[in-house]
Structures are given as C-alpha cells and as structure tokens.
Amino acid sequence: MFEQHIGCLARHHAMDDVVSHLASAASVRCGALWGASRALTALALQERTGRPLLLVTPTSHEAEDLHGDILALVPDGPGEAGVHLFPHTEILPYEDVSPFSDIVHHRISVLHALVEGTARIVVAPVRAFLARLIPRSSFTGAQLVLQKGDLYELSDLVLYLVNLGYEQTSRVERAGEFAVKGGILDIFPSNLQDPCRIEFFDIEIDSLRRFDAGSQRSLGPVESLLVLPQREIMLHEENRTRALAEAVRIFPPSGDRDALGDLLAAGSDFPGMENYLPLFFEETSSLTDFFPERPLVIAVDADETVRQATAFERDIDELYNGYYSPMKLKLPPDALYQPLQECHGFDLRFETLATSESSSVAMPFAAPRQFMGDLSALSESIRERTGAGQEVHVFATYEGQADRVASLLSDCAPVRALEQARPGVLHVGHAPFSAGFVSDELGLAVILEREIFNRKRSLRRSVRSVNSVPIDSFLDLKPGDPVVHVQHGIGLFVAIERMNSLGLEKDYLKIEYRDSEKLYVPLEMINLVQRYIGQDGAALKLDSLGGRSWERTREKVKKNVEKLAKELVEIYAARMTLEGHAFGEDTRWQHEFESAFEFEETPDQVRAIEESRADMQSPRPMDRLICGDVGFGKTEVAMRAAFRAAMAGKQTAILVPTTILAEQHHATFRERFALFPAVHIDYLNRFRSSAEQKEVLSRLAAGHIDIII
User: Fold this and answer.
1) Over the stretch 446-487, which tens digit does the pLDDT of each residue have?
2) Full DSSP string of 491-547
C-alpha cells in the first residue's frame, strides 16, 4: 500500500543524515515525527540499513499503537512482514500470580521468530525491554520438531511436554493441552491455529494430521509439527535441581524456603514462579540477545520512555524493600530486570519536536490540520493537496464509517479504491492508524476520520477468539471423576460397561459410592447424572447407596435456599421503602459527553445505559449489576453514570481489586473526561505516599473530588 513512500523516505536526504550519524556511532534524534509517521520512518530505516529494529515505547498502550500503525502500512500479515509486538507480562514483580497464558504464548512466539531470524521489527514497551529472560540457548533447545518416521517412547514424550508446560486432558480443546488415547497423541501448540493428532506405530510416528478442536474432525495431513514451550520457564529436572540448590544458597532457612523447595521439587508450575526465573539458569538473556544480530534500538518518545523506566525501577525497589508484596522470598530487582543504565544505549530517539542540536535530524513530516468537523475546510484542503499532485488518504476505523465519509467527500475529489491510489487522487478506506500525518516532500497526507470530527480513537483488540463446544458426552469423563446422581448423590465415575439385562445388551454408566458400592445407570437415563462441581481443594465426601446422607444434604440445601429467598425478599422490600436521590433529565453536557464516545454502542450496552439512567432518575436506591466480557463496554456504562452524578453535584467511588487496575482506570477516566476538566478525578492505592493519601481524602471530604478510584 505504501511501499513507494517507504522507499522514497529510505532515499530521502534526512535518512542520509540519520545513517551518517549511525555510522559514527552517535545517538541520533529524529524529530518532527507525528502519528503513524513513526511507523513509516521505522520501515524506511529498516529498508535502508537492512538491520533489525527494536522499538521501545513508554507504555504497552503506545506499543500496541505503533505495532498497529506498522501493520497498517505493510500489505502482508505480521508473520510475513516480520513485524512483532513483544508484550509485557502485565504482572508486578513479587506478586503471587502468573501472567495470562495468552500473553505468555504471544511472548514465546515472538522469541521463536527472533531465534529463527524472521523478525525484522519488534515493538516492546520499556517494561518488557528491561525484563530478564530465559537464556537464548535454553529457549532454542526447548523447541521440538516432530516428523513422520521419528522415534519416540510415548511416555518420554509425555514427560517432555509436561516439562514444557503442556497440560494433559481427556480431550484437547485449547492451546497448551495434550491428550493420550492408546497409541494416539493429540496436542495443541499455541503457535498453531489448530491442534494436531499424532499416530504411533509402536515407537515410530506413523502420521500427523491437523484436526478441528470443536468437532474433533480431521483437517488434513501435515509434514512436520513445531512444538513451542507453553511457559518461559521449562521445568526439566536439571533446571529444578539447580533452582532448589540456588534457593538454599540464597535464602536463609525458614518455613517459606521449605515451602518454595516443595513447590520446586513437585515439578509443576505455581503462581508467581516467574519471580524466581534466575534460579533455574546459570545466566539470563535480554531481549536484544534473541536477535540474530544486534538490532538498532530506538526509543519512541525517548524522554517519556526514560521517565517510565525510571518510575518502574522505583516501584520495583519499593516492592522489594517495603511491605507491599505478599511474597516473602524475593530476589533483588537487578536479578529480574536490567537497570536502564546497564542496557544497550538507544541508537535512535524518535521525537515529536525537532531541535537544532547537531545530532538531531528533522524528518519531512508535520501534524495534520484539525478540522473540528468543518467539512468545507476539509474539502478545500483535499482539493489543494490533490491539485498539487499529492496522494491523500482518509481512513475510518471500519468499513461503514469509510462509506459515509466517501459519500461526504465525493464532491471535492474523485474517490478511488486503495489499489488505485496515486498522486493527485483521494482514497477513502478503513485502517487502524493511531494518528495521521502529512508530508509535502513525500506528497502524502494521511487523515483520520476521527480527527476530522474530533472523535476519540478506538482501542485495539488483541484477543483471539477460538471455536469451542460444551461437554456433551460422558465419553469425556475420566475414571475417578466425581459425579452427582439426582437420587443417590455424589459418587465416582468408573467406566461405561455393556451388560446383559433381561436378555438385552445395553450400555450402563458405572458409578462407585462409599464402601465400594456400585450403581449402574442406563445411558438413556444419563440426564439424572451431572458432573460434580465443588469447591477447589475441598475434601470430597462420597455418599452411600441407600443411606440418608444425600437426603439430608438435599433437605439442608432446600432449607438454606428458602432462608436465602426469604432474606432477599426482606432486603428488597426494605429497599423499596427507602428514598434515594432522583437525578434529573440529562443535561446538554451529558449529551456531549456521550457523543464523544469513540465506539458504536452495542444493543446490550445501550440497554444497560438506558436502564442505569432510569435507575438514577428513580427515587429508589440503585442496585444494578452489569455483566460482560472484557472489552465490551462495561466501564463506559459506569463513566456515563459517574458523569451524570458529577453534573448533579454528587460524588462517585469506583472500587477495583488490584493496584494496577486502579492506575489503569485512573488513566482511562482521565482520558475519557479530558474534554470536561471541571470533573475532578483522583485515585488511591498502596503506591501513593501517606501524605498524598491524606491530601486526597481531605479533598474528597471537602467535595473537591467528583470521582475517586
């Protein structure tokens, strides 16, 4: 799409100056970079030098933006283009939690692309850049390639997969799972879209076939299968032995050390294990170590990147030295993260402003004009640029918006399809750019629809959806799984057996109860049996056939349900008699606030917003639960309610479960309310000093804070 402009910039005199500074081993500041022009400059620099690039951003949000901008400029997908995002784990050090598996799988896929030499450009937030990683040699040695004709003892292969972090299940449905059924091994590596079925003839791999995780049907043969680790620490015996020895050497004797030793000896992963990564290996690697050659390391918005790194180092020190963390045994911060001053220096710095310093190079870009919804001014600008032979692109976030913009602009210039874009022509399409830019020297203008109408941008979604099916067959049960019969209670599933009863051959579900008593349930009556869903870690107590334990349990539950129902009726009856504050009709400011929302509301979201509005305008106390998946707009419902409260002179408290979420919600609320500075927002969490907390509470009590998080 923009190959010609990338090549033109690669040959531009400004790029000559950049390359000249790099040749003299000097750090270069590239100024006058706006919006997606950073991505265009990175692609041109990579084309000019032929070296891989590592772009370091202040935050994960900006890393996602830059990564999306680069992908929007190249015609191929991320893998083919060699463009990757290396995310941070989004976990604070010294927490007894581990990263989400999707994040770990993503990081591992990027490390694999680096060792394979297929990654040209990697974008990483500074927190991910500073983190110490598994040694490159250990990561490379953990990768497994399976081919037809290879010889493996199935038991050895199963142990190897467990050490790589794979989970053994009865049926493979999700990435990171494997199952063994006789001489067949099903495995779902996270680097593939579909799982693979491996059939053995004795110890020889006889065939490999992809299959659908939902229907379990074959999708065709494959020549080979690459199996990547499922976590960044491989629990091979050698690694665990070293970790145990290092724990004994580093930490003083204590019950906590013994508990850590038991976890390590068990050979399975545990929450927060990543905090002990240096114990497992003689040395660690940095992200730059995974590149086949030293990359050009570029700080995007360099001053802010350094500021974020410094703040992160301060936070780690506080967690290590203070009492914020629940983890008792802690490795020092420099064991987990490289201090910024010890990292490889930044070769280039991408800046918005150009300076007169000798090491600063002004790139040929400028910010696009702000039209504030003035379509006549936009039309005039497009006519001027196309008349001057420039290529003008107007991008919306999705196709429907692009069609509306195209119809609005059809009078000012001929609108062409993207493949017909050329000098003097207007193109309208949809692409996920973070911000636009113009370049008179390159004859290029990129304008975003949301910038034309002063709309806030949409957030990128990086969660991959997968097909799945519910458990629909007792063939999915494993021997020993607890089940519940409606009449007889809790037992253990043994097997499905074929028996002769009254001269008829039928299949029965065999369930074992206390004292080895057996119950045979005809398969046509399996609707009476369900999987047992109990509290994790709770001891399982089997019922007796013919005993009264299950009957007593049912009677007890029935009484508790009746008691709970009575309490709920009393609570809600009391609530209906209380008088709350009835908010008035929405103000003009409320309409403007809601119009500034960057997304098109979903029908469910509109319903939740309307019902919340009705709740607030009712004199009854509000009592509403909003349920929805991550990224589907629950926070926006809360924001509109909080804005309505602020306009009426009332205060709102937003309660979140973690420190990170408090900071993230504060940033999100500040961004969403940016056009309404009269609404005062602040937050409280454990990282704020005692003086700061007292000041916030004082302002809150005085009514000077409208929304507290």
Assistant:
1) 998 878 876 655 444 443 433 333 334 455 678 888 888 888
2) EEEEEEEEEEETTEEEEEEEEE-GGG-EEEEEGGGGGGEEE----TTPPP----TT-
